[in-house]
Each structure stands twice: as C-alpha cells, then as structure tokens.
Design a protein that fits this description.
The complex is a heterotrimer of chains A (368), B (248) and C (372). By secondary structure, chain A is α/β, with parallel strands linked by helices. Chain A has 2 domains: 234 residues, no CATH class; 100 residues, abc type-2 transporter like domain (abc type-2 transporter like fold), CATH 3.40.1710.10. In chain A, strand 1, helix 3 and strand 2 form a beta-alpha-beta unit. Chain A is elongated. Chain B is built from 8 helices and 10 strands. In chain B, helix 3 packs across helix 4, helix 5 runs parallel beside helix 6 and helix 7 packs across helix 8. Chain C has 2 domains: 217 residues, no CATH class; 104 residues, abc type-2 transporter like domain (abc type-2 transporter like fold, 3-Layer(aba) Sandwich). The two termini of chain C are 25 Å apart. Classes of the chains: A alpha/beta (368), B alpha/beta (248), C alpha/beta (372).
C-alpha cells in the first residue's frame, strides 16, 4: 500500500508540473461548455432577408409588417430582379428573398388566391427549409386573419408539451456529450501517452526492475487521471447546473456511479493503446483515431445517429460514448432510475472487461 | 601555434537573474591552438562557449571571436566558426552524404567543393560503404567523428566542441583526438569543453572553471608544476574542493 | 538563396522518409472526408411518432394515414394506452406522442372544435421544433381538408388562400453533402498543415538540431521559409486530393473558379502555418505542442461555422471567430463551390486572412531567436 501511494504521488507530481498540458486538460471542458452553452446554437434569428414588394398594397404591407416583427428576420425592402438576387446570394449578404407579385391584394380579392414567392439560398439546406417554413407560417397566419370574419368551423387545436427541455435550450442535448468527450479524452489519451512516455524515456524498465509489481505500476498511472476526471466531472456538473440552468433531475449517486464506470472503461482503453504503441506520437494518434473521432462522430451528441447510413449506425454500437450518452440523458435529463439503464450499463461493463483483459494480456507478453 | 589572437575576452559575464553563471572571465586564444575548458558540470563551461558562438548574449564584459564583436556582430562570427553540440546534431534520418551536403550548402560551399569534401570525409573515416546509409545506423563513435568533420567542412577559423567525447570508450576518444590534431595542424583553432580530465593532456593550454570563474589557466605541464602534483586530476581536486556548485 | 535551397532539400528528404507520412497525408484525410459528411447529416427525418388513439373513428384513421404518408415520420407504436405512449418516449423509442381523445370525431362536429395532446421529447431542441412544425403543418392541412369536405354547400364562403411557393437555389435537392464536404476539407487542411508545421519545429528543438542551425550563418527568414514552404506544398497536395475525393465520391463540382480557390488556399496556408510556427516558438516538447494545438484546433473547428452557423452566435463569439482564418476559408469554399461566387465577392475575406497571416507570422518571427 505504501509503495502504491508513493507511486501515485510521483504520477500526480508529474501531471501537475506540466502546465501547458494541464491547461488543455482543464481548459477543454470549460471551453466546450462555454462554447456550446453560449455560442454554438442552431437557432436562427435576425437572418438577413430581402422583400421585393411589387404590389405595395394593403395585403403585402400587412404581411411584410408581420415578417419584420418576427425575431427570425432582419428585413430590407428593395426591388431586385432575379439576377440581382443571384448576385446578392453570391455576395453572401442575404439568405432569402420574399417576392410579392404586382396585383397581390387585387388577385386575392377577386380570384380568391394569390401566391407569394420565396427564393432561398439553399447552400445550407436546414436554414433554407426553416426560414422558408417560418415565412410560410407567417403567411398562413395572415391567411387565418383574413378568415376571422367568417366563423371557422371544425377547428383542431393541438396542445403541445415539450418534455424535459421546455425552453428548447441547446444545453440538454450537448452537456451529456461534453461529459463523455472530456472523461474519455483525459483518460484514454493521457493515460496511454503517460505510459508510453516512460517506455520512450527508458524509465519504464527501471520501474519494472524494481520490487514493485507491474500491476501496481499500471494502477498508479491510472489513479491520478481517475481523480482528475472526477474533478472535471464535478466542474461540468456545477457549470451545467449554475451557469446553464440545467438541473440534475435523477439520482446524483447513480450519475456519478455510471460516470465512474465510463472512466474505468476509458482507462482500460488507454491502457490497451499503450500496449500497442511505442512512441508518444503514435499513442496520441491512436487515441485520436480510436477514441476522439468515433466519440465525436458516432456517440450521437453532435450528429444524430438515426440519420446515418446503416453501416455507421452499426459501428456506433461499439463506441462506449454512445451508451454513456444514453445513460446520462436518461438519468440526468429525464430523471429515470437504474431499471431504465441497466442494459446500457451492462454493455459498458462488458467493454471495460474486454479492454482490460486484452491490455493485461499484452502487457504480460511484453514483459517476457 | 601562432601569436595571432583569434578569441579575446575581457571580464565576460553571464547572469541569469541573481545567478552568475559565468563570472568575469578573461583570456586569449591563439590561432591553431587547442584550447581546453575544463570544469565540473555546472561550472559554466557550456554557457561560456555559447556566448562565444553567438548563441547567447553576454550580460557584461567584452569578447571578440575571429575579429568580430560578440555583442554587435554575432552573425559574422557564425560565418567563421564551426560548432559541434553535445548531442552531435547530425540528422539521424538523413544519410552520411546528405548531412555533408546539407551543412556544406548551408555554409556556402559550391557543388564542386561539396563533392570534393564528401569524398574526402568518407575516405578519411573509411565510411565509403556506409556513405548512403542513414546516420541513425552508425555506431556512436563514428557519429562523433563524422560530426566533427562536418563541423569543419567549411574550413572555419575556429571550431567549438561542447563535450564531444561523451559516452564513448577511451580508444575511440583517442581516434577522435587524432582528428582534432589534424585540424589544428591545418590552422584551425580548437576550443573544446570537457569534463574528462585526462583530455586536458591533449590540449596546448587548459583553463579550469570553478563556480563560473577561471581558477587556473596554463599548459597542462605548467599547471602540474604550479600545483606540485603529478596529474591534472589532482590539480582539479585541489581547486574543486572550494567549489560551491555541483549540478548542471 | 543557396542556403534556402539546401534547407528545402533536407526538409523534403526528411518528410518522404517519415513512415507515417503517407498515412497522415492521404489515408487519414480520406477516411475523415468519407466518414464525416456521412455522419454530419443534419436533415431532420425519420421522426418516430407514437399515436395513442382513443377514438378509433374514420377521422382519427385518416389523420394517422396522412401523418404516416408524409414521409417525415415513422410509426413507433400505435396503442390505446397513454402509459404505453409515455414509456415509448421515456425509452427514446418515440420522439413524439400524439393523443387523439375519445369521441374526437363526434365532438368535433358537435362542439366545433377539439383539442389534441402532443408530447415532444425536447432534449434536442432543433429536432423537436422541426418535428413539431411538420406535425402541426400536417394537422393544419388535414383541418383544412375536413373543412372543405364538411363545409355547408349553401354557404360557399371561400376562404382566401395564399400559397407560398418556395424555390431552393443552388442546392435544389437539399443535400447536406455539398454544404459539409468543402468545409470539412478546410478543417482537414488546417489540421494537417498547422499541426505538422508546429510539430516539425518543436521536434528539432527537442532533439537539439535547432541549436546547430542557430550557430550557422543561416538567416532567420531563410530558416523559417525553409520550414514553411514544404508545408505549403503539403497543404496544397491534401487540398487537391480532397477536391478529387469530393468530385469522385460526392459528385461535387465547383460552380466557381478553381483558381480562385487555390489563390485563397495560399493566403490561408500563409496564415495557418504562421500559427503553427507561433505555437512552436512557445512549446518545448512535442507533448506540449500537441496539447496546445489540440485545444486551439478544437476551438477553431467548433467556432468556424462548420457545424453551427456563425450568424447565430452572440456578438462576442462572432468577434472571436473573425480572428481565426478558418471561418473565412469555409465561407469562401461554400460560396465559390456552391454558388459560384467570384473574386469580387470574396475580396474582403482575402484581405482579412492575409492580415491575420501577417500578424501571426511577424509575431512568430519576432519570437524566434537565434540568440538568447
């Protein structure tokens, strides 16, 4: 025990003495949370659009007023030809143009119908669809206003409840993802690099020649990162609750327990990587390729898994972060209990054991 | 050894904050001389050399190297000197010939001169068969010798060697010093630092640095006489007892 | 100039000898260019809806039909029990639950209006609002259908209609690939060129060969050019390779002028390599360089407009983004490739990135000292 403690102390000192790396370790979660919490969002507002009003009549002006009043749009009224609209799109100054035909209100009254044209820059398809959707809703609103005089029978009135995130904030979606990313990053990359560095410098041999058991060397390497990760986890949770207004609905104990499980999974993966790489560069590279990239792509927090081709969806099943993400969403955001996440927990445990077994086997082989 | 002075220093000092690494050293080095800088690790030898090479700006004092002032004309100095660092500084992932070509080119040799030098160096070291192999594959002793020859590929006036014989057996060290004598005969001044005290005997003159100061400066024979002892080791021991610093 | 030539010769020899070089330059980018766009597909589709039907009438059946045939929704469950619906949302099997109350059909006629409960899993805010928007749209349409069907023929009060006709220019198929692939390519070039440059210099520092160079008469600018030029070439190679993959794999043909893209690429590399150089003057070991570059690359990537629009960012974030060259290049790529923008449209982008490059390189050169 005493040996282990002196080991752990050495590891801690080495980690704490490299400020530039520490900067990354602790800066990472903070930066991600700040960015996602306050800067990155898909919400559209104040989109620059142009209204080409060829009618300049009562109806068109009413509709334009509504559009101007909407938070989604920042409106400029000019008369542009289609080729001028094309140029404006190419300059990147506007995203959309709403065009009213010359006899808008007259046609509406006498023919009972008059179209409004929406031309959208569909470089970013989602933005284009959403923005034109908003215009459509505004026009439909106006259409309903016009019909207010007559009684409108047979109205279906939907009553919607937005569950778990009534304000439609971005935070609930990504905070669990940030947790997965940060825990995985610290544990996998730093552990593997730290072990490999000792190999590179030759100090690993010295350790192995000492009376300390090899298993203890490994455990001692892992413990500082385990503790650092828990500190990081606490920081993320505190930031989410107090800075992002995202409360922890479920059991804190369960959340921390599952997180510790993920940490151990990550440490095992880091250990595994350290047994198959021989230089720091390749350890970093392998961590990136084997852990970072799949976590970012396939865990579901940045990109929706259900949109991906089947192949990728299948592959996502072997990414630990995917299962952790589901667990955290269930426990932290929905307030559900263990009975809902036992399956995912078992899967994570299985992965951990798998990594550990292979890593330890590799480690023993190297010693002989 | 001629009377022409190629390195001249006067109260040259380097301070890092409160720490005085090199304390007002004053000495001359003559053309063609093999001038040794001895001392324990941390005595200030490497720092002194770096100032003379233009790698480090002195805090105070004066020094000229090859006629150029170290404060005002460090880049001119670099044109006239060669340097071999402790880590040998050949590119391990380049071949013997490629290293020669690179350093030759950097120092302004023409293509013809580079070709000549390549043949000359590889023959001198007997490396003709290894010429195209990566330096990584050479044994340590050969790397050292090659480093030295590459350092003087441009026939500089002075060559600075920083602990050049580390980690190599005495036989190899002897061979290395043969190369140094060769160069000195051709008129190249050799400025070498070392903590191998037996190498002092190979030098024309030797200084012993202790705690940043020059405590002794003379030929090896002169030192032994002055201190009344039989080996340089004992000279050093007498001086080093007073030493306060010990680590590099 | 001769020293520069020898420097470049040495650099290229070293690069080609590095075993990982082919992997880093070609294989890793290829994998990323192929995988990332497949994953980064933000189109909202296949929304799982569970319908709890207490009414079992013709109306509820028709509504269900309409919803499922719209193409936006997949049926996650069809049940009588509210609790089943709840469970489906809790277990993420359904994104939306629609509840049709008992007697919906009859009461709609009798009382003239009826409410319907809709529950949406709003953890993913965008998905929730888009999904709800689609559902609402379908319900409104169905409502209109019912009115027209049941309307009293003696009261022909035609409700005025204003159809909205939307045209989607430049990308009528509304695919995400054309939007993402050029941007991902930028991100790749940034990473590879920037990281490689930073590591290369720090490695020389670690090994000690940099001291040997400091002692030679090589001028600072020659040394720096000798270090940067190979990476300009590297960047151009990766970029070209990426454009080929975009062409062959995703059928993306730039509408605008390719030379304009290469011009911008040069200015961009000038800036990004300056950044790598700058980082290398501050880092002493490869691990430090790695940590620093990693942090910066991550921030660059996330704030570059690659995944989320810059227009949606708060002012302070927009300001920071505009200090990085990456967002400009992504913008230019998207503009030139998708819309065919010309040099006049991007002249400010070029100016800004060039200025950034000037600042970074100057800072780095000032920082790099041959004599300390």
């Amino acid at each position: 025990m005493k040996q282990l403690l002196s080991f752990v102390k050495k590891e801690f000192l080495q980690v704490l003495r490299d400020p530039k790396t520490l900067l990354m370790l602790f800066g990472l979660p903070v930066v991600q949370i700040v960015l996602f919490g306050f800067a990155l969002t898909n919400e559209l507002k104040n989109a620059n659009i142009v209204v080409v009003d060829n009618a300049k009549d009562y109806a068109s002006e009413q509709i334009i007023n509504k559009i101007e009043g909407s938070k989604f749009f920042s409106v400029k009224k000019t008369l542009l030809t289609p080729s001028q609209i094309n140029n404006a799109f190419k300059e990147g100054t506007i995203k959309l143009a709403v065009v009213f035909p010359a006899n808008f209100y007259t046609d509406l009254l006498h023919l009972g119908t008059a179209p409004v044209q929406v031309i959208a820059d569909a470089s970013d398809p989602n933005t284009a669809v959403q923005l034109s959707g908003y215009i459509t809703t505004i026009v439909a609103d106006y259409q309903a206003d016009l019909s207010k005089g007559s009684s409108v029978p047979y109205s279906i009135i939907p009553q919607v409840r937005m569950l778990y995130n009534p304000d439609l904030k971005g935070a609930p979606n990504f905070v669990p993802g940030v947790m997965a990313m940060v825990l995985l990053l610290v544990c996998v990359m730093m552990t593997s690099v730290s072990i490999v560095r000792e190999k590179e410098l030759g100090t690993m041999e010295i350790l192995l020649v000492s009376p300390v058991k090899p298993l203890m060397v490994i455990v001692a390497k892992a413990i500082p990162y385990l503790i650092l990760s828990l500190v990081n986890l606490a920081a993320i949770l505190l930031l989410s609750v107090y800075a992002l207004d995202l409360p922890i609905k479920g059991s804190l104990f369960l959340l921390v327990a599952e997180s510790t499980l993920l940490i151990i999974t990550a440490l095992s993966l880091g250990l595994l990587i350290s047994t198959i790489t021989s230089s720091q560069q390749s350890a970093m590279f392998a961590s990136m390729l084997g852990m970072m990239l799949p976590t970012m792509l396939l865990s579901g927090y940045m990109f929706p898994i259900e949109n991906m081709p089947i192949v990728l969806q299948v592959i996502s099943n072997i990414v630990p972060a995917k299962w952790y993400y589901i667990i955290v969403k269930a426990v932290m955001l929905k307030g559900l209990g263990f009975s809902y996440v036992w399956k995912e927990t078992v899967i994570l445990m299985g992965m951990t054991i798998f990594f550990l077994v292979i890593a330890l086997r590799n480690f023993k082989i190297r010693l002989e | 050894m001629s009377e022409e002075v190629v390195i001249k220093t006067n109260k040259l000092t380097k301070r890092f904050g409160d720490f005085v690494a090199v304390d007002e050293i004053t000495f001359d080095v003559h053309k063609g001389e093999i001038f040794g800088f001895l001392g324990a690790n941390g005595a200030g030898k490497t720092t002194a050399m770096r100032m003379l090479c233009g790698l480090s700006t002195p805090t105070s004092g004066e020094a000229t190297v090859a006629g150029f002032d170290v404060f005002k004309e460090p880049e001119e100095i670099k044109k006239n000197i060669g340097y071999m660092s402790q880590k040998f500084s050949l590119y391990e992932d380049l071949s013997v010939l490629e290293n020669i070509e690179f350093y030759g080119g950097i120092y302004g040799l023409t293509n013809k001169e580079i070709k000549e030098k390549s043949t000359e160096l590889t023959e001198k070291l007997g490396l003709q068969n290894e010429a195209k192999k990566l330096v990584r594959s050479l044994p340590l002793g050969w790397k050292q010798k090659l480093s030295f020859l590459v350092a003087i590929v441009h026939q500089p006036k002075i060559v600075f060697l920083d602990e050049p014989t580390g980690g190599v057996d005495p036989y190899m060290r002897r061979e290395f010093w043969d190369l140094i004598y060769d160069a000195a005969d051709k008129g190249i001044t050799i400025f070498v630092t070392t903590h191998y005290l037996d190498e002092a005997e190979y030098c024309n003159r030797v200084t012993i640095m202790v705690d940043g100061k020059i405590e002794a400066l003379d030929s090896p024979g002169g030192l032994r006489e002055k201190f009344g002892v039989a080996t340089i080791d004992e000279v050093f021991y007498k001086l080093a007892r007073e030493a306060k610093r010990s680590a590099d | 100039m001769r020293p520069l030539f020898f420097l470049l010769q040495k650099e290229f020899r070293q690069i080609f000898r590095d075993k990982g070089f082919i992997g880093r330059l070609f294989i890793a980018p290829a994998i990323q260019l192929i995988l990332l766009p497949l994953a980064a597909n933000y189109t909202i589709k296949n929304i799982n809806i569970a319908i709890v039907d207490h009414d079992h009438s013709e109306v509820s059946a028709k509504l269900t039909q309409k919803i499922l045939s719209s193409g936006y929704f997949k049926l996650a469950g069809f049940t009588d029990f509210n609790s089943k619906g709840e469970k489906l949302i809790e277990t993420d099997k359904a994104d939306i639950v629609l509840e049709i109350p008992e007697g919906f059909d009859k009461n709609l006629i009798k009382e003239g209006n009826q409410t319907m409960a809709i529950e949406v899993n709003a953890i993913n805010g965008v998905k929730a609002s888009v999904g709800y928007a689609y559902l609402n749209g379908i319900i409104m349409e169905y409502n209109q259908d019912i009115r027209l069907e049941w309307n009293d023929p003696n009261n022909p009060g035609q409700l005025p209609t204003i159809p909205v006709i939307s045209s989607f220019w430049y990308n009528p198929a509304l695919t995400y690939y054309i939007f993402m692939v050029p941007a991902i390519l930028v991100s790749l070039v940034t990473g590879i060129a920037g990281l490689s440059a930073a590591f290369n210099i720090v490695k020389e520092k670690e090994i000690g060969t940099i001291e040997q160079i400091n002692v030679t008469p090589i001028k600072k600018y020659q040394f720096i050019l000798g270090k940067l030029l190979p990476f300009v070439v590297m960047g151009a190679v990766v970029f070209t390779f990426g454009m080929l993959i975009a062409l062959v794999g995703y059928r993306i043909v730039p509408v605008g002028n390719i030379f304009l893209l290469y011009l911008f690429l040069l200015v961009f590399l000038f800036a990004i390599l300056g950044f790598g150089l700058l980082v290398s003057t501050y880092a002493e070991t490869q691990q430090q360089a790695n940590s620093l570059m990693f942090l910066f690359m991550m921030v660059f990537n996330m704030m570059s407009g690659l995944y989320t629009p810059i227009d949606s960012m708060p002012v302070w974030a927009k300001f920071i983004t505009h200090l990085f060259p990456v967002s400009y290049f992504i913008d230019v790529m998207r503009m030139v490739v998708i819309k065919g923008s010309g040099i006049g449209d991007v002249r400010m982008h070029i100016l800004y990135v060039f200025t950034i490059g000037l600042v970074l390189n100057t800072w780095a050169i000032l920082n790099y000292r041959k004599t300390t």
